[in-house]
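Dear colleague,

Thank you for sharing your sequence with our group. We've completed the structure prediction you requested, and as agreed, I am returning the results in plain text so they can be pasted directly into your records. Please verify that the sequence below matches your submission; if there's any discrepancy, let me know and we will rerun it promptly.
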Amino acid sequence: MDIDERKNKLVISFMHSNYLIRSAGTEKFISTYSKIIQKNGCNHLNFFSFYSHKSLLGIQIAGVNYNDEFIGIIKYCDIEKFIEKIVYEKNMSIEAIHLQHMQSHSLTELSKIINRWNAPTYVFVHDFFVLCDSPHLVDSQGKYCGATIPNENKCKKCSYKGIIHFSKMKAFFSEIEKNLVSVIVPSDFVKNAITECFPEFSKKVFVRPHLIITGKKNYSEISGKIRIAFAGRQSEEKGFKEWCNLVTSTYPKLKEKYEFYYLGIDSQKIQGVSNIYVSIAQQGKNAMIDAIKKNDIACAFVWPLCAETYSYVYYELSLAGVFMLSNSISGNIAVEIENNENGKVFETLEECKEWLKDYELVVKTINEYRINGKFRPANYEENENVQLSTCESKLSQKTVPLGKMPRCKILILETAIYKFRFKNKGLNLN
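Please find the predicted structure tokens below.
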């Protein structure tokens, strides 16, 4: 049968940002997953919200990507009409709806779309937005409050609307329950939290790691100065202030024992720290792993001030044989470090500083891991399993170009401005 004579499969996803121009963990996952969807024969229609960009018309808008090409900006209220035109004019059938992130999306509109098409729906949990409108579960005082159900005692001093938000999410999931196939989480840590907070959906929660880690690699012992790095964004929630504190208190006293490095795209300079520019978007998916190996990084400070649901950085560091220093509230990082014995987990920053003072112990501990550690992975590959997020385990149809845009009110000026703003940031433009 000719492909034009049969319905072409369509996966619709909703996201809080444009994965084509951002390279944070969630966006990295969407970018990879989009390619997997297409590889398995589904077209991918993505709508992303604008939470930091106001429409010129003062109305809620959404960006649209199709098979990894940006195709325009529309009024949010036109999303349903847009989907309808694609389904009917392009002879598409909706294979699935993926709720990748619902921040700044209308739960009412999402519910209408899901139930109107009776579409199999899959919720992906990348952070804890399903629990609180503070997605990293950091309260208004900057303190991590834990992956538990919002309640009066926990939320009374916080300006976030955690209790109200959680009630809205519960109501939304109830509205789409008949079409909700599964809730996909990246780790057991997240599964435990979600099943505790949404026990009614406990049988629908499945763990799907982003990466498949294989093999075992040998490393030589280290001697001389130990190279310690901070990898990723220089943001407060990732523990950058604590990193600065660690360096400024350690460097003057122990600069003969340690060298400090920053690996990432940000540019803030700290005395005693060598900055190495690393961009996955510009240098490829192995950029961080390659930079760690090239600069002989033996140890890393991984200190988020909130629970990580997965952490690509943790696995990238593991693939380079790096021994990690983290805290007890780092979520999946702390769980994996303790399970895999490839780092140390501290209760306080002062404990970490105190441990680093004993240089001989640090060398001995790192070398013991490098020679005898049980988790020294050699390889990784993207998890290409789509069985948890599609109705069919194997899809055979080919993706097709959208061709001429369905007749819908595209905001021409908004689209032009957006293209201009991001033309040098790798945006694939239609």
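Summary note from our side: Residues 1-6 have pLDDT under 50 and may be disordered.

Kind regards,
the structure core
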